[in-house]
Design brief:
The chain is of the alpha+beta class. The chain contains 48 helices and 30 strands.
């Protein structure tokens, strides 16, 4: 959050001799060519420094104009020195000319040029121009892509859809649609339904309608009527909804009899019979659970059928209490919608009781209704039978009259319903006002909807808000009400609505997973069927082959498709079919959170164009009206901090961060601070030597030339021209091109040659041991076998020196040189590119250390050597545990398939030996996972153990390595001493390889790295692939690859990888504290204050260890800094993160650090819910991480293809 308040810098320089000299574009890549304040340009504060910066993707209200410029308005002519870039010659080939004519007509028809011009004008009208304008372009065009869907239908056509020819009935207020007999209700509601579309529910409603009351022999004097209505989105299928996300059926029982307790028993019997029918084998529908309201308002309890059976009496007591509280009982169901296609739809079946007390001794009837509000069903839905609608209205009307006659009860008070009905009867006027439309009926119903609105999130719950707003707007006959209904129609036909409808089945699957037996054949088949339906709907909603989609939807479609497909296996009994693997709740929740990230993005884009529809204003107004704050309204079971702070709650960092700024790795400010840089037009004009009459146009045109928008536009047109077809919606493809241009603008400021020259320092490497070919960077004590990779080492204090300090306490110095027949040497190296931390790699996510054990013995004694190796490992781990300088999470064998904690090692030494021997025999990885306190963070360290067995076979030295094969490790290993490097050269297999610089050895390394890169890219692990690319580039001295790897590892994608890794670290540490509570030390207030003052320590300097390596103050600090960095990264313009997603994440971050008001002491709640919250945050960011990595990769790939160095 602090980054928002940093002043934005204005870029300027001295007066140029000519504009072309100041802003030369020759030889520059597609990126920021000239506005580079960090490279020699003088700067002074501009007027903009005193203003709070706006986000680059925001557009002022005045610029939200759907109109396009007149076709005669053309941009200013280009400058003479750039004329060649804008020239266009008519192609001489007739076929090419015809294709160009088609493309020109297409661009005109889709308003592509005019829309882009409008967007550019909006940017150029600002007083300060953004350094990187592409995020603004992306936001604008992304909205245009969504507008293409929403505004495909004209306003008149929508009005016709929402208007039907009605027919009145003999019953007041009940109307139907002419020519149809399956929709009856209030005039305003019937006007917005499509009876033809509702016919698909006829069979379902008929099947779900009870035939009669369930009466015992003693209850034969009771009688009643059963009225069935359809409420919710399904009632408006075909008009407001293409496909309703759920089906809600309301069953209202009107029971006549002398005794209310007996009527309640009959009502319970009817519900019980309904439940029994749904769980029988003959019923085609499935019951998921029973929602019973609890005693507290707005609290519900979900009972499974098994729970209800086990606690039968308690269940029915709860039902009885809920009925008396006038809160409906709800069955959550999977309804069979179509028998032929076996299509199911999630839905609810609600039960409401009305009781008419009759007496043989009296002709009066007393009415007791247990509905929430009178006439609520008429306002929320429709009846599919005319008789039901008429009976509903006439019964209530008749009962109103009898209630008014009955007067007060024995205590002098009426029940609330009777009061309401009596007052309505008394309120009738001769001027034509009626009871159903009276304010005494309508206002409580509207207040109920408004209370529901107040509890919703304005973006996350946008589809729920849309339905409630539609119900409110139905009765509004004004012009404003009509406009709201039209905008709601457009929104409910947007991509956001389609996506929401596809994701709702996930919640049903989660309930199914927890309630059914997946081992049961019938249940397993049903679950597989619903999962396949969910998979189909989800992937179809954003399928790029059906509709043009931008990169974020393309990537999410690809990744979700892989995840969902991996959950299926071939059916053993029928190879043409698939069955579902064991489905778990965590996977479904991860998928749902990924879908939510896209949902928030789509919703914000869809809401942008509406003038009347504003959910944020609506929710805020309802909360103010009902005196509800956001936290109370949004509750939904979120965990609140145990001790609420009196400080500002706008962000976690406002409560917990210290004034000092935390350092994160070796970041390049020219990249991370780009969002704070602007170009002040007036300042540039003041020192320009252009004629005054044209200076503004010249400055703005040069700005457009320098951001190379013409090249990006040309790239986009080429994509259109060379594609298989011209897409109906051209904007998603343009969004993708602009997203990638935004990343190129951020990363490609320098040419490959100049960048690689800065990054590589071959002169720092010296040959120190000619016999063993050991090279070293002696200034920092780094030694290795490959001078090529050592050239990329950062010898500055912020680079390798910090790595060296971290390695000092982890070196095994207790191994003797001989054990029995075996000679032993040990060396510790840093690997997997971690040595390049600093200039090449900005963040140290995981420090990978490789401890090599060189055991020399006789031929055939390898089994004994492995046993010795296991003992050496055990002794080393025990020694590290005794030092109490690190947090030892445990030892992992075979890539994590087996695991032993620190406590397991003490309790079961034999199992550890067995695992080590087995992993060594299989040449699997063995590593110890450690966390070391460093400044504000706990650094994750993987200490890998590698066994090398050396023996002599027929006078030849032989070498066998008992770890995964990695030819590149020789090039990446960096040691802290020449002796250790020499030991590795003698015992690590390098001697057998010969000259590492030979063509054969380099070919082997390149082939291995190429396979790793290909595998990582195929697995959509883009940033790990670029780490391999960096190693390959260093080995081959490839300047282009070095530059691109540096760009990728300094991109926003790698920042997201970094913060995602910190999230997992926090999860690991909280889980460790839960498993071993005695390890977490409660820090005193004084020690925490001391720790705060050390927040800016050097990265390699360990935190205070007097109380042990693991204390709650340091852990809370870790979480606080993580929150601050996460917020900062997500606010980057090139992250393209919707503001609502950022807000959702910030709300979750608020719950993971508690602050004591009196002591201001921070603490991280050590509980499972903290892990769950961190996991949810990780899952919400993961899609952003994926599509950002994709865009960066494509941006750099396109950048390579232009071969900039040849210019």
């Amino acid at each position: 959050m602090a980054s928002q308040h940093q002043s934005r810098r204005s870029v300027r320089g001295g007066p140029p001799a000519a504009p072309s000299r100041q802003w030369s574009t020759v030889g520059q890549p597609t990126g920021k060519a000239n506005y580079r304040p960090m490279t020699g340009m003088s700067r002074r504060p501009s007027r903009q420094q005193l203003q709070k910066p706006a986000r680059q993707d925001s557009i002022p209200e005045a610029e939200r104009n759907e109109s396009t410029p007149d076709q005669n308005e053309q941009p200013v002519q280009p400058l003479p020195n750039s004329k060649k870039r804008y020239s266009y010659g008519q192609p001489s080939d007739p076929r090419v000319a015809a294709e160009m004519a088609v493309l020109t007509e297409y661009v005109k028809e889709k308003s592509l040029m005019s829309t882009m011009m409008t967007c550019c004008q909006a940017v150029l009208q600002r007083e300060s121009l953004p350094y990187n304008p592409y995020p603004v372009f992306v936001s604008w065009m992304r909205r245009e892509a969504e507008r293409f869907h929403m505004f495909a239908k004209s306003t008149k056509s929508i009005q016709a859809t929402l208007t039907s020819k009605q027919q009145s009935t003999t019953t007041p207020h009940i109307y139907g649609v002419k020519g149809h007999s399956n929709a009856w209700g209030l005039e305003a509601v019937i006007n917005a339904v499509d009876p033809q579309a509702l016919k698909r529910y006829d069979w379902l409603v008929e099947d779900e309608t009870p035939t009669k009351l369930v009466l015992s022999d003693e209850q034969q004097e009771y009688s009643g009527q059963i009225l069935v209505a359809m409420v919710g989105p399904a009632a408006f299928t075909g008009t407001m909804y293409r496909k309703a996300p759920s089906i809600d059926i309301r069953v209202e029982y009107v029971i006549y009899g002398p005794d209310l307790p007996t009527a309640l028993l009959i009502f319970n019997s009817c519900i019980s019979e309904d439940i029994r029918r749904h769980i029988s084998a003959d019923c085609p529908h499935r019951i998921l659970g029973i929602v019973v309201p609890r005693s507290q308002p707005n609290e519900n309890e979900l009972w499974t059928v098994e729970q209800a059976r086990e606690k039968w009496d308690d269940f029915w007591d709860t039902v009885r209490d809920s009925v008396l509280q006038k809160r409906p009982i709800v069955l959550q169901c999977m309804f069979l919608l179509d028998e032929e296609t076996a299509e199911y739809r999630i839905g609810n079946k609600q039960f409401i009781l009305h009781f008419v007390e009759t007496s043989e001794n009296s002709q009066q009837e007393r009415f007791r209704s247990f509905a929430e509000l009178p006439y609520l069903t008429l306002y929320e839905g429709i009846f599919l039978r005319k008789a039901h609608a008429e009976t509903y209205v006439m019964t209530l009307k008749r009962l109103q009259e009898t209630t008014n006659q009955s007067g007060a009860n024995a205590n002098g008070h009426r029940e609330s319903m009777e009061d309401s009905l009596a007052s309505l009867h008394e309120a009738e006027r001769d001027d034509g006002s009626d009871l159903v439309n009276a304010d005494e009926v309508r206002e409580p119903i509207r207040a109920k909807w408004q209370r529901q609105i107040a509890k919703c999130h304005p973006v996350r719950d946008a589809l729920i808000l849309a339905h409630l707003t539609f119900l409110l707007a139905l009765s509004d006959r004004s012009v404003q009400g009509s406009e709201v209904r039209i905008e709601l129609y457009r929104f409910l036909h947007s991509t956001a609505a389609s996506w929401y409808a596809a994701t709702v089945l996930n919640s049903a699957l989660q309930v199914l997973v927890t309630t059914i037996d997946q081992e049961n054949e019938d249940d397993g088949k049903f679950l597989t069927q619903q999962f396949l339906e969910y998979k189909t709907k989800l992937l179809t909603a954003i399928n790029p082959e059906l509709h043009a989609r931008s990169s974020e939807m393309y990537i999410l479609h690809r990744n979700l498709g892989n995840v969902l497909q991996n959950m299926l296996i071939p059916d053993p009994s029928d190879a043409s079919k698939v069955v579902l693997k064991a489905l778990d709740l965590n996977t479904l929740q991860q998928i749902q959170n990924a879908c939510l990230s896209l949902q928030l993005l789509l919703t914000e884009d869809a809401m942008f164009f509406f003038k009347r529809l504003n959910f944020k204003t609506l929710v805020r107004g309802c909360r103010e009206a009902f005196n509800m704050n956001a936290a109370k309204a949004a509750d939904a079971g979120k965990k609140k901090p145990q001790v609420k702070s009196t400080k500002s709650s706008n962000s976690l960092t406002a409560q917990t961060s210290s004034p000092a700024k935390m350092n994160h790795g070796v970041e390049v400010k020219e990249i991370t601070q780009q969002k704070n840089i602007v170009i002040d037009v007036e300042e540039v004009k003041s020192f320009s030597n252009w004629p005054r009459i044209m200076v503004t146009e010249a400055v703005l045109m040069q700005y457009m030339v320098d951001i190379k928008l013409d090249q990006v536009w040309h790239e986009y047109l080429l994509e259109l021209l060379t594609g298989d077809h011209l897409p109906p919606n051209p904007y998603p493809r343009l969004v993708t091109v602009l997203r990638q241009a935004a990343h190129r603008m951020q990363l490609c400021a320098e040419t490959n040659a100049s960048l690689s020259t800065k990054l590589l320092r071959p002169d720092q490497t010296k040959l120190v041991d000619r016999i063993n070919s050991i090279h070293g960077v002696t200034s920092v004590g780094a030694y290795g076998l490959s001078p090529r990779t050592l050239a990329g080492l950062d010898a500055e204090p912020s680079g390798f020196i910090k790595i060296a300090k971290l390695m000092e306490g982890l070196t095994n110095k207790e191994v003797v040189a001989r054990r029995g027949q075996f000679q032993i040497e040990v060396s510790l190296a840093v690997g997997r590119g971690c040595a390049f931390y600093g200039r090449l790699v900005p963040y140290l996510i995981t420090l990978h250390l490789y401890e090599h054990y060189y055991i020399r013995g006789n031929i055939g004694a390898d089994s004994d050597a492995i046993q010795l190796y296991a003992k050496l490992l055990y002794d080393n781990i025990s020694s590290l545990s005794a030092q109490n300088h690190h947090i030892l999470l445990g030892v992992f064998f075979g890539g994590g398939s087996r695991y032993m904690s620190e406590a397991d090692l003490v309790d079961d030494k034999a199992t550890f030996f067995s695992h080590v021997v087995d992993a060594a025999r299989k040449k699997e990885d063995i590593h110890l996972k450690i966390y070391q306190p460093i400044g504000w963070r706990y650094l994750r360290i993987h200490k890998h153990f590698v066994l090398h067995y050396l023996f002599v076979d027929n006078t030849e030295d032989r070498h066998e390595c008992y770890s995964p094969d990695d030819p590149s490790s020789v090039c990446q290993s960096v040691f802290l001493s020449q002796a250790q490097a020499s030991a590795h050269a003698r015992g690590g297999g390098a001697k057998q390889l010969g000259n590492l610089e030979s063509a054969t050895n380099l070919r082997g390394v390149n082939e291995y790295l190429s396979k790793e890169i290909e595998g990582a890219l195929d697995g959509h692990q883009v940033m790990p692939a670029y780490q391999h690319i960096l190693c390959k580039a260093l080995v081959n001295k490839d300047k282009k690859l070095i530059a691109d790897a540096w760009r990728a590892l300094h991109s926003l994608a790698y920042q997201l990888d970094y913060i995602q890794a910190i999230n997992q670290d926090l999860q690991d540490l909280v889980r460790y504290a839960l498993l071993f509570p005695g390890k977490l030390i409660k820090a005193s207030a004084s020690s925490q204050s001391l720790a705060k003052g050390r927040g800016n320590k050097a990265k390699g300097e360990a935190g205070p260890s007097s109380q042990g390596p693991f204390n709650d103050a340091a852990l809370a600090k870790f979480a606080s800094v993580y929150s601050e960095k996460l917020t900062s990264v997500l606010q980057e313009p090139c992250a393209f993160v919707p503001s609502s997603l950022l807000q959702v994440i910030q709300d979750k971050l608020q719950t993971i650090v508690d602050v004591d008001n009196q002591t201001n002491r921070q603490s991280l709640p050590i509980e499972q819910e903290t892990i769950s919250t961190l996991k949810e945050i990780w899952q919400l960011i993961h899609p952003v991480q994926d599509w950002t990595s994709f865009d960066v990769h494509k941006a750099l790939s396109h950048h390579d293809s232009k071969d900039i160095d040849s210019k």
